[in-house]
Amino acid sequence: MSSFEGYHPLMTPTFRFDWLTQFRLKHVATLTHQGLAETADWLNTVMRQTMSRQALTWGIERRATRKLVGWGGFQAIDLPGHRGDVYLTAPQLPSSEQQEILTRLVKFAQSELEFTTLTLLDDHDLDTTVLTTLGFTPRQNHQWRLKL
Length: 148
Description:
Number of domains: 1
CATH architecture: 3-Layer(aba) Sandwich
Oligomer: single chain
Protein name: N-acetyltransferase
CATH superfamily: Gcn5-related N-acetyltransferase (GNAT)
Structural class: alpha+beta
Mean pLDDT: 94
GO molecular function: transferase activity
CATH topology: Aminopeptidase
Largest sheet: 8 strands, mixed
Keywords: Transferase
Helix content: 25-40%
């Protein structure tokens, strides 16, 4: 795909992934612990990176409640090198929901982006058992790697 524009929304049984611009600014600001102006600037940067194919970031909404619970996606996208960094920022999600989201991201990376390697740079909000179950191997400084 020449543009990332068509890559939204994505669905799982529990969650809808959509551009952060599809959510109320005030809800995104609350989740990011920033003011409205800072959040608006951050959203502009995120969407500019998405449209220039440098990153893919989705807001993650619980479908049943329509509540924004976090955001995640890919950064440092290297399409010719078939690799990128995956991340999930969703504090306080149970392990089963982390697994559902990360499974969707891994499948997307493999089938749509044709990645052969994924790196997770920060596991602070994540259950490391989920990462191991998905096939990630630990590296140093809270980083993990997955060969697809």
